[in-house]
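Encode chain A's predicted structure.
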Amino acid sequence: MYKGLAFRLNGVCVELENSDSDLRQGAYTMARLCRQFVIRIYGTGRLGLVTLLTALGNLPSVQVADAEKPQADLTDGVDTRHFLVRFQQEECPTELRGIMELDIRDYHLTLHHYLLHQRMPCGRCGAPYHTTGFCKTKVEHLGKMHGKYRRRYDGAVPTDQVGDAIHYRHPDGECLAVFLTTL
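Encoded structure for chain A:
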């Protein structure tokens, strides 16, 4: 009866939805997707999205629902040096809770839990409560701080080589079908 009705709550426009309808495995409404826990992952560089998602998916209790580069609005200057990763739960996965740095192979990734901490984690000690300019951690305590906020993933990770954009442009459906069968 009230589905789709919009009202103002604490200065935010909220639209009512029926949260029990259309609950299908792997299908998300836009409102449900907005409620999922999201982090920003910096430092992926040439690691690649497939490798990143495989490594995250191999961690216990981590189920990724979606990953993307940030969308560019014409009105905003968008930082595209990170991936937005949405999980299948509404809270942070237990394996990543409190973790600000993740080492995969030779890549050092910074996890920014921006829904919980407004600022980026400290680049020196990894703490989420202050930035590098305000870090007062003594040198002898840096190892302890890194142990608290950093994890290393040593599991198997695929080495996928993504081709140039020209490899993915196909003039017709037959060419695309041949390409997909050769994958």
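Strands lie at 6-9, 12-15, 38-42, 64-68, 82-87, 101-104, 107-112, 150-153.
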